[in-house]
Amino acid sequence: MAAVLMPEPDLTPNDLKYTALEGEEKQRIIDHINEEHFSELVGFIKAFTPLTDLSPKQHDVRLVDIYAQGIGLQVSALASLASDAPQSDTHYFIAFPEVITHLNELQYQYIALKQQADKKLRKKTIILAEKLFQVKSGFAVTDNMYRLLLSAPAAASDNSCFPASEAGYAYLFDLSHNLSLQTASNSDTAAAQRTHRYYTLRKVSTNPTTGDEEAWVDVFLHGETLGAQWLAALTPKDTVKTKREVPENIAHLQQGQSLLIADETSIPTVARLLELWQNPIAPLIIYITQKAADQAYLQDRQANPLIDDALTVLPVMNADLAQGAPLAELIAHTLTQHLKSNPIHIQKVWGALETSTSKALRALLKPTLNLDRSAMIVKGYWRQD
């Protein structure tokens, strides 16, 4: 169980009670967590401190330092609150289940904290477990999107619990289970070492002939990547291995006018979202692709009579644009131009793009939409090497 010392307004990186970790990647890790994992930081505060009713609309929560023993969080009031709530910066220390000595050990302790917090808050959480699935078949959905059909091996029926009614549920695939580093020799050395890839569960269907559950995993093909080599190496009846499962943070989209922003890597999440959508207000969608032909991907989905007639998809082509600020500016411009002729009040945002693009886009959308951090989730799904 995580421990908390509170309040400690004088908690600093030089506090002798804790050993601050050092490393070249430390500030990048802190910035990444603050930018893309705000809801998790709020969860830590609500689960492990007396601030169980903390509102992200009225408070900011930031990671301020990483220690061998845990993490330091800062809670800042954004508005005048009741007298029993913090009125200024307040610092809390959240202890890891186990002490670490290097930043490369942080991930598992952070996940352990998240699992504990999610359990207390009764939320779905990350699952760390190796699972084997069997390859049934595969085919192209568009010119550059390949659908892999998987089922649980008959000898491992306990592995067949696919989350059928969740959008954005991701599995961490261990590509080395099927692809040796020697096979991946066309990739550079650094890329060849990164033999794990997150792929999103597009949908779960029932085979009409066998009655078996089948999972659809849609993979975007863009050149001679490790993922493309992995797919090329797979044949029916092969097994694939996953090592982690991560639910997507989409609960905020259940009410209000939503904006969804996706590229080819995250559009499977949007497609499943649209199939399961129960919010009576149809979302506005911005879909970014390198090839015009891949815009057809969203047509390959189950109809949703609740929203389909009111659905608007704004296509954005980025064949010649660099990731980061250039693409983010084009996306923001596309949205601005649309809102000029179609004025709507956007209340919620979910987006997933290349990491530098998502960071630049958040900075552009924040003053335009004026949303709090819990209502605007724009995250990095992949990183440009």
Would you write up a description of this structure?
The protein is α+β, with helices and mostly antiparallel strands. The protein has 8 helices and 15 strands. It has 3 domains: 4-121, PNP-oxidase-like (Split barrel-like); 127-246, Elongation Factor Tu (Ef-tu), domain 3 (Beta Barrel), CATH 2.40.30; 251-382, 3-Layer(aba) Sandwich (Rossmann fold), CATH 3.40.50. It has helices at residues 26-36, 38-48, 106-121, 189-193, 226-233, 267-276, 325-341, 355-369; strands spanning 4-5, 59-66, 70-77, 90-95, 127-142, 145-151, 170-174, 196-206, 213-220, 239-246, 258-262, 284-289, 312-317, 348-354, 376-382. Helix 2 packs across helix 3 (106-121) and helix 7 packs parallel to helix 8. The relative contact order is 0.10.
Give the structure's gist in a few sentences:
The protein has helices at 26-36, 38-48, 106-121, 189-193, 226-233, 267-276, 325-341, 355-369, and strands at residues 4-5, 59-66, 70-77, 90-95, 127-142, 145-151, 170-174, 196-206, 213-220, 239-246, 258-262, 284-289, 312-317, 348-354, 376-382. The chain is of the alpha+beta class. The protein folds into three domains: 4-121, Split barrel-like; 127-246, Beta Barrel (Elongation Factor Tu (Ef-tu), domain 3), CATH 2.40.30.10; 251-382, 3-Layer(aba) Sandwich (Rossmann fold), CATH 3.40.50.
